[in-house]
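Entry type: protein chain
Record version: 2
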Amino acid sequence: MSKVSPKKHLGQHFLVDQNIAQKIVEQLTMPDGVQDVLEIGPGMGVLTQYLLQHKEYRTTVIDIDRESIAYLKEHFPQLEDRIISADFLKTDLSKLFPGKFAIIGNFPYNISSQIFFAVLKHRDVIPEVVCMIQKEVAERIAAPPGSKTYGILSVLLQAFYKIEYNFTVHEHVFHPPPKVKSGVISLIRNEVEKLACDEKLFFEVVKQSFGTRRKTLRNCLKSYNLPPEIQAQPVFDKRAEQLSVQDFIALTQLVEQNK
């Protein structure tokens, strides 16, 4: 098999620039002595080849595209049984890795948010993520409070990870070229083991707060029926984008105490 055809329904845009591929792999730091790394959507292995140069890594790849799987088996026999033909979003990661593992990949634009929610769910065993995603999404995740792009994923990921925007990748280095630029970001697990509030409620409050961006929190959180004296607090005059992670934790505590 010479090449894999990019499939529109899978959101495939294959990176063809070797220097950028190498640079993406170089962003991995593998903290806490982690050896396992899972590549999501390897395609024709442009990142895989550089991962395999690191003999200290135990590289596993996962792809939903059977054509890619056949190509990888033919061109990367050294991966042996670490080529997984499956949908990452439906995979039981605890069966793949008994301990901690890092994630790397050129994520399909159409499922990148779902991948991040899966990362959050398994945050205790995923100390690092290095990925290339749509530039706009990458900037949103790395955005600080007060920024117009700061949103749900910014808050939820920044609660548990230190985010770094590494570099921008232009459209012409892909086949086929996407219509937008890409951004490479790193997520490194922070020191927070558990939030100082009900975590399920925290996720809920964050999502609801950003439900209508232009409205104040007083309007966004109406469904909680908080007492008037609580709603009179200055924080409820603010909009969601003005709150830091710590502010959202404090807000969740208020909701929790008055449920």
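Comment: The mean pLDDT is 93.
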